[in-house]
Specification:
Elements: E1 17-19, E2 29-30, H1 33-44, E3 47-56, E4 66-74, E5 77-81, H2 90-95, E6 100-103, H3 106-114, E7 122-125, H4 126-132, H5 140-148, E8 150-152, H6 168-179, H7 181-194, H8 198-210, H9 233-253, H10 257-260, H11 263-272, H12 277-281, H13 289-293, H14 295-306, H15 330-333, H16 335-355, H17 359-362, H18 365-373, H19 381-390, H20 395-412
Parallel strand pairs: 1-8, 2-5, 3-6, 6-7
Antiparallel strand pairs: 3-4, 4-5
Helix pairs in contact: 4-7, 5-7, 9-11, 9-14, 16-18, 16-20, 19-20
């Protein structure tokens, strides 16, 4: 459904035509193998890129599995697939070999989709394209409004997609999410070409497509909100023990950990170090009906931490990594590195404004910090390019920045 945006002055929001119903109607959700087989045949007979989206139940369920997969291709129409009923979608993947898949924020969807056997050969990411073009707002609704002049409702973006049956209004929302995604892709591709950024986008899309899934975190319990305010190893042991008990319970019940026990309750228990269930449930964060009902389980986890010998308590600081310290500490620890970082940031900021590309998309902040903390022995354009590439920078980024960064870092000493 290709449409153009109505004109608008630079000082006002563009007028948008609301999208309320998919052009072909809302298809039934596919839950049977025979239905999937027909969808596979239709997709194989379609033409051009395929629009792809997936819905999860973040904040409701444990993990990040998909509960709905949406596909739309010219000549095939829109498909809504239930990956709970149909967990193996490899046949869809085979039908789309060599086809470009169009996503908005692909990095959020690629790994969960791979668990269903869906692994694209090429992608186009409309969110990344919008960032490279310097659009101020890059959410799907905002980009669709600015580029296509269409209003895309987002009121169901954070609902519990594990709900069965899925409400009709949610299915309409899901179908609309892929309704104009290919049209959006085409419009953004034209803008990228006109801006001389098409090759930048191609490299960014490929980097996202090939990125490995995130590695498991070391000591993930240290990410509990508020843990940095704790000052004793015994308190940290309580956090670790409660976090693990929460994870085990959440996994078993398939509920988001934050719904089982909020972070603030873990921190409150670590600060109070209660010795019995009564003392635990006296804490406001443990007085709720659900939390107090499981209080014996939480107290058992606390008791385990309280009984640990000193040698088994976690250290106050997490495991050492090869990452540089926070930049705020550089001025005192390594003044020369701080000077290099200040000079390098000025270069990246200046190029960002000139090219209308956000700083974080022009160069990964971690790559820049590492370069300034541990620069090559001989700072040259070639050595800086190699150092950045080793940290994941793309060719287009090193082509633009390696020379100016080498000059700035060299001058800063």
């Amino acid at each position: 459904m290709s449409q153009t945006a109505p004109s608008a002055s630079a000082d006002e929001e563009p007028d948008v035509a609301p999208l309320t119903t998919p052009a072909d109607g809302v298809p039934d959700v596919l839950t049977t193998q025979s239905g999937l087989d027909r969808a596979v045949d239709a997709l194989a007979g379609g033409a051009g890129p395929v629009a792809v989206d997936a819905e999860r139940a973040s904040g409701y369920r444990y993990g990040q599995q998909n509960y709905l997969v949406q596909l739309r291709r010219a000549g095939a129409g829109t498909m809504l697939i239930d990956p709970v009923a149909l967990p193996d979608l490899a046949a869809v993947n085979d039908a789309l070999r060599g086809t470009e898949w169009v996503f908005h924020a692909a990095s959020q969807d690629l790994h969960p989709l791979s668990e269903q056997g869906l692994v694209p050969d090429a992608i186009f990411d409309t969110e990344l394209a919008a960032r490279l073009l310097g659009l101020e707002r890059v959410g799907l609704g905002a980009v669709v409004a600015e580029v296509l002049g269409l209003g895309l409702a987002k009121e169901h973006s954070a609902v519990d997609w594990s709900t069965r049956p899925l409400p009709a209004s949610w299915l309409t929302y899901a179908a609309l999410d892929v309704e104009v995604l290919v049209d959006l892709r085409d419009a953004l591709a034209e803008r990228l070409e006109a801006a001389g950024k098409a090759e930048w986008a191609r490299q960014e899309f490929e980097a996202v497509r090939l990125a490995p899934p995130p590695a498991p975190r070391v000591d993930p319990w240290r990410r509990v909100s508020g843990v940095h305010a704790l000052r004793s190893r015994r308190q940290l042991a309580v956090v670790r023990s409660l976090w693990q008990a929460r994870e085990d319970n959440a996994r078993r019940r398939d509920i988001s950990p934050g719904r089982v026990l909020p972070d603030r309750a873990i921190i409150a228990a670590a600060q109070a170090l209660p010795r019995n269930v009564g003392a635990l449930t006296a804490l406001p964060t443990f007085s709720g009906r659900g939390t107090s009902r499981r209080a014996p389980m939480w107290q058992t986890a606390i008791d385990v931490a309280l009984a640990l010998p000193e040698a088994d308590l976690p250290p106050l600081r997490g495991p050492r990594t090869d990452a540089p310290p926070p930049p705020r500490a550089w001025a005192d620890r390594e003044p020369a590195a701080a000077a290099r970082l200040e000079a390098a940031k000025a270069v990246v900021t200046e190029r960002s404004e000139l090219l209308t590309v956000p700083v974080e998309n022009l160069l990964q902040p971690d790559a820049l910090r590492r370069l300034c903390w541990s620069p090559p022995a001989q700072v040259t354009e070639e050595s800086v390019a190699a150092a950045l590439a080793a940290r994941g920078a793309r060719v287009w980024q090193t082509d633009l920045l390696a020379g100016p960064l080498a000059a700035a870092i060299g001058a800063a000493g």
